[in-house]
Write a structure and sequence with these properties.
The chain is mainly α. It has helices at about 5-15, 40-50, 55-70, 70-75, 85-105, 110-125, 130-145, 155-165. It starts with a helix and ends in a 19-residue tail after the last helix. The relative contact order is 0.14. The structure holds protoporphyrin IX containing FE. Protoporphyrin IX containing FE binds near residues 122, 125, 131 and 132. InterPro entries: Globin-like_sf, Globin/Proto, Mb-like_M.
Amino acid sequence: MSGDEIKNSRLNRASLIYPKPLPEIKLGPVMDGIGFTLSERLALRRAWNLIRPFSRRYGQDVFYTFLNKEFWGIKKFGNGTELDLKTLHQHALKFVRFIGVLIDEQDPIMYQLMISDNNVTHSRCKVGSLYIGKLAKALVDYLLHALEKVSSPTLERGFNKLVEKFEAYQDNQRKASTYGRLSTFH
Ligand code: HEM
């Protein structure tokens, strides 16, 4: 190696160590890969720890109130002639648990997969995406009311962002056979 080359390689190595480049300054809140700020996610996690033991009760309150208004929804839990009450009752818990699992999910890819998978399930059952958003909003309103004393604007923002994920569902018209369920979107 020539003198110049030695000097250059020393300089190159030195530049790795000193001066260290300053980290890029990010203005405003830092978002995770899913679109929540760290404090929103923390607020959601904390809130969910309070909600989890009551998932069934809250789920039933919200889902059955929803079905009182949107009674067509009951028929989605059956084969067109008979109602499947067990699946209907299970849904009252499953839909709340699903949101809890979403809140815990860190990986944006897994998160998106869960959302799209859930979208596909409801498209298959011909449940209109509009109503997915409505049920999510009803649950969030209910929870914010239940947590009134410990709520915060950050928690509200976090919950609203969650609702937006459900409002973005798409009606997937592909392949209409739905295990014999009603074949039109509602
Ligand atoms: C935030 C809104 C909702 C969430 C998070 C949600 C969540 C879920 C979950 C986790 C499943 C089970 C999927 C599986 O086992 O693979 C499911 C299935 C289902 N959901 Fe929803 N749901 C929502 C809204 C609705 C609405 C508004 C209706 C309309 C009545 C509905 C009807 C159904 C039906 C018919 C199934 C299939 C039941 C079965 O055969 O197991 N969902 N939903």
